[in-house]
Amino acid sequence: AHQFKPLINVLVQRAASAGGAPRYEIRAQDRVRALAGINWRSDYFAEVYVQVEQAARGRGWGRAVVAALARELLDAGVQPLYSVAQGNHSSVKLAEALGFVDNGNRELAGFAIRRTE
Q1: Cα(100)–Cα(81) distance, rounded to whole angstroms?
Q2: For residue 1, is pLDDT > 50?
Q3: pLDDT (tens digit per residue) in 4-20
Q4: Closest residue by Cα to residue 9 from 53, 101, 71, 83
Q5: What is the rounded distance in angstroms from the CA atom of residue 111 to the CA atom of residue 102?
Q6: Domains, the chain, with CATH or none
Q7: C-alpha span between 90 and 87 (Å, rounded)
């Protein structure tokens, strides 16, 4: 059983990314102010992302677009995964408000530079 907490916001609109993957948006003044989409998807899992304009933060719009996307994925039998950069407390709060839980996994990224003489 998942911990998902559904949320409905009439401002949320379904769209599609360039590749056809689902994407949910809130538009205001003819601009996308908040959006949620999929970074990658397998048969069983999908990593979601969220972006909210700085001026639109604090209105619950990020939570609303992620909730709509998560609902679609769960209805399709796909488990949404929500990755958060360490220290991004606003994103953690958003995820927890929707029922995502910290599973303790951490991701490390490294970069290499090749020098040529």
Answers
A1: 8
A2: no
A3: 777 788 899 999 888 88
A4: 71
A5: 26
A6: 12-97 (3.40.630.30)
A7: 9
